[in-house]
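seq:
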Amino acid sequence: MSELVSLLVAGVVTGSIYAVSATGLVVTYTTTGVFNFAHGAMGMVLAYVFWQLWQGWHLPALAALALVLLVAAPLLGLVVERVVMRPLHSSPLSVRLGVTLGLLLVLVAGGESIWPQGNVYNVPEFFNGHNVSVAGVVVSVEQLITVGVAVVCAVGLRVLFTRTTTGVAMRAVVDDPGLARLAGTSATRIASYAWMLGSFFAGLAGILLAPTTMNVLLLTELVIYGYAAAVVGRLRSIPLTFLGAIVLGVATNLVIGYVPTGAKSDITDALPMAMLLVVLLVLPEVRLAVGRLPRTQILRPASLRNTLIGGGGVVAVCAVLAVVLQGDNLVTLGDVLVLSLAGLSLVPLSGWAGQVSLCQFTFLGLGALTAHWLGGDSVVGVLGAVALCGAAGAVVSLPVLRLRGLYLALATLAFAVLMDNVFFTSTAVMGSGGTVAVGRPAFLAGTRGFDVMLAAVLGACLVGVGALRRGRFGRRLVASEASPAGYATLGLGLSVTKLAVFAFSAALAGLAGALYGGLSGAVGAAQFQFLESVVLFVAVTLAGGNLLSAAVAAGVFLGVGPVLAAHVPQVPNLVQLLAGIGIVSIGRNPLGVGQVFLRLPRRALEPARA
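struct:
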């Protein structure tokens, strides 16, 4: 009995940390309508700043805590709102989510550069060794403080949102910005308050987690686990969010206490994201918004002539490069082509349909593994990868067919993290060595021939996806993003369209994965981490999301970037850092960098026409 009580107490403590993290997400979303995917990374950076002030520069603990929570955290939130988020007020959802994902990459890459992960960073507990007895259970003072802080935060925010003028104004701004402005409320000022408050809670959660883990990726991911609790509260209710966090914390600790050792690690790693997927399944359907103009600019689809020229140009250029290049440069060329194909899988889904997928590299991994199981040196293996990934994509999209794009992004993130923690790390999947071999056709054993084949496949897919955009299905995708309510009014099935485009996107990613495995010869779990999917999505969005050329531009950036980064070893994850920094340009030009070049000829002609 005492063991159960101890596990419950520990679960409440863990849940309290999740509650603090999730509360910050709810504050930002409730007030600004933006789901901050960088919330965990902000908490991680502030935790490291706390370590730097206390352990690195030897400031008193309370002074370091006050500087982080009352100065650094609000300042970080204010800078993010003013510099990054404010220009995105009327941007499409995929772009706004892409910006927060880019900020996640900047903070993670920046954190690893400032605090190299080869060093050890320890944050001791404030009251290490001080314990009290509660109902016969020994509880540390640190645990009591953690629970107390979470309760105070939840109660304080409840009072803020329901009892104060500022809190009511914060809720009003996101519910009806126009009406709030008529009442004299400044939307920009309220948004600044929300981001400062959200950053405060992210930092508080990071500091509470710091004594148990000081690793950039692990700390970011632990704060991310608060997403499940936030969705329990439907991103609005503080009490339900707190309840969801406590349930998650208690369930995690019960697993630690009672599940056999062999399965314990897998279940504890999978539980938060599994809970998120279950909650998404039971959320009620979101009503479609009416009376709003489309926020995306609908571009004319590329003509058959242009796509043939573009696809043929890719093949011709790559054929020349395959002859000229030598050694590792041939592998880099192959990486560019495969990553371009992976980027192309996002164009119909995110660029045209406005749906966000954060698991494309997971499908690449599934495609590579399927080719391994069925034989990557045969057409059967490649076709099997396409079919399996298409089916998996349809299944992943099922929980959120009734919901908005944000929930699809959360579902795909949960799926990616689940696969990272449970599937790709399993010895039953990857073998005891952690890698599996993937073959390629015998007549393409050389890298030159394989690169030319990759170029031909990419060129054909560019032409095929271009034809898809000009066809009926492509028009339906664009219409479903431009005006979901109007689309449904015409009697067209939004759910069917979402399911079809997600299955198509996943199938294309599976094709890229099978070819990626053949190019590499062997694949391992580290190649398919969820952060790689984030980088891909950000790169494609940055290059102009709904353009076919954006996929090729993203492939070039992601393929060549690591080669350039090798010459700057002082900056880990330079590619991620550059992709994230590029997000500022999206803020100034929500349609992406690629479309700047499309407008240049028109702008050049405007003075002559005048």
